[in-house]
Specification:
This protein is an all-alpha fold and about 120 residues long. It has helices at about 15-25, 30-40, 45-55, 75-85, 90-95, 105-115. Among the domains are: about 15-55; about 75-115. The model has no long low-confidence stretch (mean pLDDT about 90).
Length: about 120
């Protein structure tokens, strides 16, 4: 338990391997408190992992949901082709010539993410 006034530890995802260790340890009769100490997790986290395991197919984390990408794989190819032809092209010019359905900011983010 943390002392009053100290900030909470940031939330993090538990790996599929760690979740399966928690479930198998509980199935073998080890108490939640002991599991949480061994794995370095909170008691409530271990309880929740064990409770959710009964209705899950596997311990693998499903992919996150969210808005689909505005740029298609075809747009990615067009942008890369335009950069190969003219390495000094700007994000504004790429927006106009390759992907006018997106925004200049989206093009810029894609370039930054791709390391271009």
């Amino acid at each position: 338990m943390r002392p009053p006034g100290t900030p909470r530890q940031p939330l993090g995802e538990v790996s599929p391997n760690q979740r399966s260790r928690v479930v198998s340890a509980r199935d073998h009769g080890i108490k939640i408190g002991a599991i949480s100490r061994l794995e370095g997790l909170g008691d409530s986290t271990c309880r929740k992992i064990y409770k959710n395991a009964s209705h899950q197919v596997s311990c693998i984390t499903p992919s996150r949901t969210g808005a689909p990408s505005v740029l298609t794989p075809g747009d990615h190819r067009l942008i890369r082709r335009a950069i190969v032809i003219n390495p000094k092209i700007t994000a504004q010019q790429l927006f106009i010539s390759c992907a006018p359905h997106s925004s200049k900011k989206t093009i810029y983010r894609y370039l930054k993410k791709s390391g271009i």
